[in-house]
Write a structure and sequence with these properties.
Layout (H helix, E strand, L loop, with lengths): L4 H13 L2 H8 L3 H15 L4 E4 L2 E4 L1 H25 L5 E5 L7 H10 L5 E5 L3 H10 L4 E4 L9 E16 L19 E4 L7 H9 L4 E4 L5 H6 L7 E6 L10 E5 L4 E11 L13 H15 L9 E2 L10
Parallel strand pairs: 3-4, 3-5, 7-8, 7-9, 11-12
Antiparallel strand pairs: 1-2, 5-11, 6-9, 6-10, 6-11
Helix pairs in contact: 1-2, 1-3, 1-4, 2-3, 5-9
Length: 318
């Protein structure tokens, strides 16, 4: 059969959302029109792809088998159109983890290597950026990746950044020149939001026995770090190269034995490298620039006897 890409796209979006209303809203069509497209696709294939029941939407076995090839078919169609109409379009890159200033890493790469033309956008978090990639709204993304990562996406580790502890002047450990993470166990971890939604901070607290935390809104680094004054026992974690705002009475102290590392990755749609997957033609250029900068600055050095990663080497491509 000849696949109707509008029907395929309707199925893929519904499979990602597992919700007809959200998928229809993304496509700017009614739920009835969405259901008809999927029904026509199922009729042509001779198989039910989605089970609609009282407990919501779920993929059938046939739907699970069809999903990845369907994504690849949509990506191939997008590349075919881009080859004719859109080959000079800038690379669209979303970043997330804004408190940790991801733009400074992109700027450092740009300062030392030729860069493709990029349009930078701000994603809310990893799930939102992953959805934008799968929907084709952006070409690549930059931030910290952690499991579970949706199927159909690939990422490459591009920087491991040491993390410092930030303390108020009245914190009992504020006078130390360096600290082991375990010495923070009796302190209060100050977080920019709910701890269970902040993977790196949550894993740090579990690994080093930090039992107490307090949270505030993420309104930027200055507002966040000013919140350390709410309790003399509070501490925050920030990547070592993030410039701290000028707030009286706060200081950053290196963490050692082990040094926590914050893992930055480049993320894109596809099952392998950009040449094999659905990458924008300029994505290779950006990956090469990151590799050159990592070689120049030793960004990817990791020693398990000296450093700590929440999931060493997990889900990364070389």
């Amino acid at each position: 059969m000849d696949l109707d890409l509008a029907q395929v796209r309707a199925f893929v979006l519904t499979a990602q959302e597992l919700h007809f209303g959200r998928a229809a809203a993304t496509l700017s069509i009614s739920q009835q029109a969405l259901s008809k497209r999927i029904a026509r696709l199922e009729s042509g294939l001779g198989a039910e792809l989605l089970h609609r029941g009282g407990h919501g939407v779920r993929l059938t076995e046939a739907g699970r088998r069809f999903l990845d090839p369907a994504r690849r078919a949509l990506a191939a169609a997008e590349r075919a159109v881009a080859a004719v109409r859109d080959e000079r379009r800038p690379l669209r890159v979303d970043v997330w983890g804004h408190l940790y200033a991801p733009m400074r890493t992109l700027a450092q790469v740009a300062a030392h290597a030729p860069q493709p033309a990029m349009e930078l956008g701000h994603g809310r978090d990893l799930p939102a950026v992953a959805a934008a990639l799968l929907h084709g709204d952006v070409d690549a993304a930059f931030g910290r990746v952690h499991p579970p990562l949706p199927e159909g996406l690939t990422h490459r580790l591009v920087r491991l950044e040491p993390v410092d502890v930030v303390l108020g002047a009245d914190h009992p450990l504020a006078g130390e020149s360096a600290l082991r993470p375990g010495r923070l166990a009796e302190s209060v971890l100050w977080t920019p939001g709910a701890l269970d939604r902040l993977d790196f901070l949550h894993r740090f607290a579990e690994r080093f026995g930090v039992r107490e935390h307090a949270e505030g809104p993420n309104l930027g680094a200055e507002h966040f770090l000013a919140g350390l004054s709410g309790d003399v026992r509070r501490f925050a974690l920030m990547p070592a190269d993030v410039p701290l705002p000028r707030i009286p009475g706060i200081r950053s102290v290196p963490l050692v034995d082990p040094t926590p590392l914050y893992a930055w990755s480049l993320l894109w749609r596809g099952d392998g490298g950009p040449r094999e997957g659905a990458g924008h033609p300029l994505l290779d250029t950006l990956l090469e620039a990151f590799a050159a900068e990592a070689g120049r600055t030793r960004w990817l050095e990791y020693d398990p006897a000296r450093d700590w990663l929440p999931e060493p080497g997990a889900s990364t491509t070389p």
